[in-house]
Protein: Zinc ABC transporter, ATP-binding protein ZnuC
Organism: Desulfurella amilsii
Amino acid sequence: MIEFRNVSLIFDKKIVLNGIDTTIKKGEFVSIIGPNGAGKTSLIKILLGLIKPTKGIVLIEGLTPKEYISKHKVSYLPQQTSINWSMPLRVIDIMLIEENLRAFTVFKKPKKHLIQKARQVLDLFGILDIENKYLKELSGGQKQRVELGRCLLKDPEILVLDEPNTALDTVFNEKMYNILVEEKLKNNITIILVSHDIGAVSRFVDRIMCLNIKLHCSEKPENIDYVKLASALYGSTTNIVIHKNGCRSCQFYKTQ
Ligand SMILES: Nc1ncnc2c1ncn2[C@@H]1O[C@H](COP(=O)(O)OP(=O)(O)OP(=O)(O)O)[C@@H](O)[C@H]1O
Ligand SMILES: [Mg+2]
């Protein structure tokens, strides 16, 4: 279980997060939504021990984030890519970079079963056909698929994704959510996904956390009052439309 206990953050005298008090259960798929500057990235950086809250604490299974991460596998896909795409590496090399570095120091090739596993993940993300392409040759969406694949390859217990789908096409975006739900069910992974894609997340996640400095709600998607949410997060003039199966424009979209 992840516990946020009265977490507040101040940057340059500005309140970025105020009294965040909530828990995320093991194996839960949670999405954090909120407008630009709401504190979403800051909150997950606190969860990962990358920044210290001004007040309050985060505990993961009773440990501080740093203690937990030193003992358990946690994958993080940051909002801004951490990969240098101009490195002269191929897709398969970057998938196995940790293994490649280890193998290099002991003058061995990466183990066959690891290469096979990396290729399975590439296949899952629909990019096995580009395994030998160089990183600098990839499109934006292909880069995002590689990053997502790397996150899953690690077999994480906790997966933290900060807007992982900004460059994904509609069809693969849907596939990504299905992959995440499947992984969660199969391996009991806790998934925390930051997104602006309220309509899509509400169809896939167990809970939506609505953040704008304060935590405005933390509910199952079906219990969320989207009118109240729109005014709390985005201002009273905004409408949020959640598309459901049977929605005519969604049907139209599917047949394109
Ligand atoms: N290192 C920093 N120093 C000073 N202020 C910061 C820093 N990082 C973030 N902020 C400020 O904290 C606030 C929240 O930023 P954060 O990146 O958490 O927002 P966000 O909800 O992730 O937004 P977005 O949807 O645009 O990614 C913003 O006002 C931002 O300017
Ligand atoms: Mg952000």
Q: What stands out?
A: The pocket of magnesium ion (ligand 2) is lined by residues 40-41, 79, 162 (CB under 6 Å). The longest helix spans residues 170-187. The CA atoms of residues 27 and 189 lie 5 Å apart.
